[in-house]
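so my prof wants the structure for this chain in the tokens format not the other one, which i didnt know existed until like an hour ago. anyway here's the sequence
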Amino acid sequence: MADFREVFAKAKHIAIITGAGVSAESGVPTFRGAGGFWRKWQAQELATPEAFARNPSRVWEFYHYRREVMLSKHPNPAHIAIAECERRLSKQGRSVVVITQNIDELHRKAGTKHLLEIHGSLFKTRCTNCGNVAANYKSPICPALAGRGAPDPETEDAAIPVEDLPQCEEDGCNGLLRPHVVWFGETLDPDILTEVEKELEICDLCLVVGTSSVVYPAAMFAPQVSARGVPVAEFNMEATPATNRFRFHFPGPCGTTLPPALARHQTEIIS
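here's what i got, hopefully its the right format
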């Protein structure tokens, strides 16, 4: 940790790549792996363009449930440490960017300003007709979804007619809205990817927090930074396939390991 802290004290552009592990301690369900079911389905059976085309009501029930769950969740010490670090370093002319795979907005809730959400957000919608993207924190998102979305396997599908599902509010459009998230089989937004590439080219320290480095794109981002000689620090519950390519590895829950790593260094001048 002392070695990491020396590198951290000198870094001017810090890139922090985060995944599901950073939100696990806030009690956010991942719908991955054993037990990761909503009703009879795993996320990869519902989070696809095909599933939405086939049964938009069921997919919206799933996302309505996830939105409602997230409204009751709060940032944990890892999210807060990242946001505080960004705020403190910005006063010293140093930058922190958070590149997250998470769609839960907990970084935003914690106060992170420079945030690239590469997989979109649960709290944004996109119109399937006109393409308009809008923030949406309504609870419920539409009257027909009130009280729907229960996760237990016995629950009947609500079978909500398309015209009662969330609709576009742009003038005269009324198109069906979908969650503004990247689904399985979809590509990432090229504009956001370009921004990510720019940040990774200028960063002089990279942190990988709560992501397995198996899932694209974190799997590609950090090793690419490491390959140009930039120190990479991994904060993860266990070692990953990429661990041996990184200079630092801090095992354990991010909420425990990250706050001391990002705390004020004694050499920092606070104005």
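also thought this was worth mentioning. The mean pLDDT is 94.
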